[in-house]
Every structure is written in C-alpha cells, then in structure tokens.
Amino acid sequence: MESQGSEFLSVEEVARELKLHPETVRRMARDGSVPAFKVGRGWRFSRSKILEWAEKKIHGAGRAQVLVVDDEEGIRELARLTLEPEGYELLITSTAEAAIAAL
C-alpha cells in the first residue's frame, strides 16, 4: 500500500489497495473485521491502522495452537517435529486429564 496521500482512506481507496470489492470493504467495516470508523453515512480508514491490519493478515496475528494428546511418546514427538517447523504453538500431553487441566 502506498504511504503517501491522506492519512485517512475512503472505502474505494482501501478496496483498490487491498484488491477487494468496495462492498466487501463496507461489510468488513460494519462487522468490525477491519479497523474503521463512521463519518456521517460513510466509512473512513486510518492508513496506518489498515497497513498494520494488512501486515497481521499477511504474516499472521499469532501462531495457531494445536493440542496433541497421545499416550505414545513417539507419536507426541512426531507431532512436535512435524508441527513446530510449520509455526504452530503446541500443547502436548499424554493424558486427557492433563490436556483439560492445561486448557
């Protein structure tokens, strides 16, 4: 997204930058899934907040969490070796009771 121009963007400008239909941007603003505020009957978007939001969407706001419960150590280790390199946050336990307690 360009860093020049007004600090605030219209629906059409955000739609153009994000390559979305303007109505999609309006819907996202209404349901709160994109940072926006109402001015009269229209929506406005802070350029810096949209850039930050887009970065999080591209790079992930956080790591997905996976709960692994298995009584075999080899299976737990295989899950760890497979999922950790993919960026998952793991909670690995050998019993259902331990898994419930950890949640």
Topology:
Elements: E1 8-9, H1 11-18, H2 22-30, E2 37-39, E3 42-46, H3 47-59, E4 65-69, H4 73-83, E5 89-93, H5 96-102
Parallel strand pairs: 4-5
Antiparallel strand pairs: 1-3, 2-3
How would you describe what is shown here?
- The protein folds into 2 domains: 8-59, Multidrug-efflux Transporter Regulator, Chain: A, Domain 2 (Orthogonal Bundle); 65-102, no CATH class.
- It is α+β, with helices and mostly antiparallel strands.
- The strands form 2 sheets. Strands 1-3-2 form a 3-stranded antiparallel beta sheet.
- The chain contains 5 helices and 5 strands, in the order βααββαβαβα.
- It is 47% helix and 19% strand.
Can you tell me the CATH topology of the largest domain? Multidrug-efflux Transporter Regulator, Chain: A, Domain 2
**How many individual helices?**
5
**Roughly how many Å is the radius of gyration?**
21 Å
Percentage of residues in strands: 15-25%
**Helical percentage:** 40-55%
Structural class: alpha+beta
Gross morphology is elongated
N/C terminus separation? 39 Å
The CATH class name of the largest domain reads Mainly Alpha
In CATH, the architecture of the largest domain is Orthogonal Bundle
- Domains (count): 2
Which sequence of strands runs across the widest sheet?
1-3-2
Key phrases:
single chain, about 100 residues, alpha+beta, Multidrug-efflux Transporter Regulator, Chain: A, Domain 2, 3-stranded antiparallel sheet, elongated
